[in-house]
Amino acid sequence: MKNILLPTDFSENSKNAINYAHELFKNIACTFYLLNTYTPVIYNYDYQMNTGGYMGDVVDVVRKNSKQNLEELQKSLKEKYNNPNHNYELISSFSTLTDEIESCVEQHEIDLIIMGTKGASGLTEILFGSNTIHTIKKVKCPVLAIPDGFFFEKPKDILFPTDFKIDYTDLHLNVLKTIADLYKSKVHVLHVSSNRPLNETEKQNKSKLDKLLHTVNHEFNNVKDQEIPQAINEFQKLTYVHLLMMIKNKHTFLENLFFKKVIHQIGFHLTIPFLVVPSEL
Q1: What is the pLDDT of residues 147-158, one digit of tens each?
Q2: For residue 146, what pLDDT is reported?
Q3: Which of 52, 91, 92, 141 has the fewest CB atoms in 10 Å of its CB?
């Protein structure tokens, strides 16, 4: 885990995620890329005509504030954690957040994005705010979403729901295995079946997953006839997990998760850190 991107708007929500990242990887050498993007509100016509203001002036002011706030954030993190394992790079960009994240992932070979998130109040965005949703949907990089107000807990138990429809690779499991190795975590692989045996492809994928996780303490769990959110909730009643991990594959549960009213009705809410790994990396 070398390069970690930490988007921030300097809110308490984003600072909470940044603190989580520092605690999670305190014993590993890495570079934190602190990213702030800005898109200033354009002057209205009357203001420009009456004051002679220029859009460039606005951009300059906002750019200066962005850089200054990043420098102050970096200073406070160095003072708070004083960790020789951690290096910092500051990125201030006049761009949309998702576009700049996408650019940073490619340019700086980002291994993981950690960002704070708040559940939206409407039914169209149940679990996350729009920034997190857009990042997960568009960016080909693992995203670790930290709920608002969640304080760091050692991820001793990790829940990994999966349908065995993915041809698993080390790239899919790299972040999971890194965390599990750091904290001697137990990974609970949860499969929700639909009253049919696994087909040959699913059996092969399960076997491959078992081999890829051979260095990690893990177990397979199978439940039948439940919606996946319900299965996750039921599992959490029996075993307190500190992190939820899923692979986002096309046409699967996670792809449709964010926009289904049934999720709200079931009551599946993000209360623990949620690691989402794209199937295509």
Answers
A1: 888 899 999 999
A2: 92
A3: 52
Q: Return the ∠ at Cα 155 (arms to 258 and 91), rounded to 5°.
A: 65
As a whole number of angstroms, the distance between CA 263 and CA 258 comes to 8
DSSP string, 12-58: HHHHHHHHHHHHHTTTS-EEEEEEEE--PPPPPHHHHHHH---HHHH
Q: What is the pLDDT of residues 236-275, one digit of tens each?
A: 888 999 999 999 876 555 555 554 444 444 344 568 899 9
* Strand pairing class (30-37; 86-93): parallel
Helix (H) or strand (E) holding 176: helix 170-183
Round to the nearest angstrom and report the end-to-end CA distance of the chain: 15
Question: Cα(103)–Cα(39) distance, rounded to whole angstroms?
Answer: 16
Six-digit token string for 122: 């409407």
Q: Which two tokens stand for residue 209?
A: 């997953």
Q: Residue 18 has which token pair?
A: 């940044």
Task: Give me 279's structure tokens.
Answer: 């199937």
The lowest-confidence range among 31-45, 88-102, 233-247 is 31-45
